[in-house]
Amino acid sequence: MNLQAFADLLASHGLRLLPGSAAVPVDVLVQLPDATIVRFTARGTALRLRHYAPEALTSIVIAAECGCGDHHPQTGPNRITLSSYAVPLAERVLDGELLFGWTHHEAGSLRLADAATHFFTLLETLEPTRTLVGVA
Asked: Of 5, 37, 81, 119, which has the fewest beta carbons less than 10 angstroms from its beta carbon?
C-alpha cells in the first residue's frame, strides 16, 4: 500500500491524510472530521497514536540549498508539520514487545499496509464515542 492508497482508505472513513506523511518508516498525520489531528508512528517496538488540537499544525518554509537567489529562489516550499510546542491531548500506544514479542525495531520495519490495521485499532480506542463514517 502506498500513501495514495492509504489516503483513499482514510477518505472512505471521513479522514484526510495530510502532507508531510511518510510510508517508510510509518509516520502519518491525519485530520479527523472534527479538525483535530492525529499522528501515527511506528518506531522501535511501539505503534503510537497521538491526538492534537487543530492549532497544533504549523507550516515551515524549507530554505533553498544555497539561498543566494542566483541559482534558486531564496525560499523553498512550505511543509506542514506539528508545532514543536504541540502537546498531545491524548496518546495511545501498542507495545509490540508485550503484544507480539518484538525485541528490536519490528514496528519501524512495518509496511504501511500492515500498520494501517493498527492505526484504526488505536483510533477506535482514542475516544469511545468517535464513530467513523463508512462507505456502503
From this structure: 5
